[in-house]
Amino acid sequence: MKKISTTNAPAAVGPYSQAMQCGDFLFTSGQIGLDPATGAFAGNDVVTQATQVCENLKAVLAAADMGFENVIKTTCFLADIADFAAFNEVYAKYFISLPARSCVAAKDLPKGALCEVEVIATK
Fold first, then answer.
1. What is the 3-state secondary structure (H, E, C) of the chain?
2. Cα separation of 48 and 53, whole Å?
3. Which of 1, 2, 7, 39 sits in a 20 to 30 Å window from 20, CA-based?
């Protein structure tokens, strides 16, 4: 196993890695909409946060020499299921290969985030 880390995505907010690579598979931790430069949320709405989430995932994937085309499964968490349509508009711009997906509403997300996404990718 190999730990994947990049300064182009926010540092972990707990005792975990941004991602772990095992063979050809990459398992990312959940990314929330924190700006890696400031450590603050990129915005206060789900569209802005979802965009930052995807940019953070893009950076973690790149650190493992992968991209969104390598993603085979995503798990998405929303603080409010009413944001489902707005979240999907952003998500569709990044995950054009249509990986398998689960999307659920969660009572609370870390730091009060509006959305969080984790991925499994393969080379």
1. CEEECCCCCCCCCCCCCCEEEECCEEEECCECCECCCCCCECCCCHHHHHHHHHHHHHHHHHHCCCCHHHEEEEEEEECCHHHHHHHHHHHHHHCCCCCEEEEEECCCCHHHCCEEEEEEEEC
2. 9
3. 39
Residue 54 annotated to the active site: no
**pLDDT for the residue 14:** 87
Q: Considering the candidates 22, 54, 103, 115, report the single residue annotated as catalytic.
A: 103
For 84-88, which contacts have Cβ atoms below 8 Å and span 24 or more sequence positions?
86/45, 86/46, 86/47, 86/50, 87/46, 87/47, 87/50, 87/115
- For residue range 17-33, list pLDDT tens digits in order: 999 999 999 999 999 99
**pTM for this one?**
0.97
**How many whole angstroms separate alpha carbon 59 and alpha carbon 31?**
11
Q: What is the pLDDT of residues 58-72, one digit of tens each?
A: 999 999 999 999 999
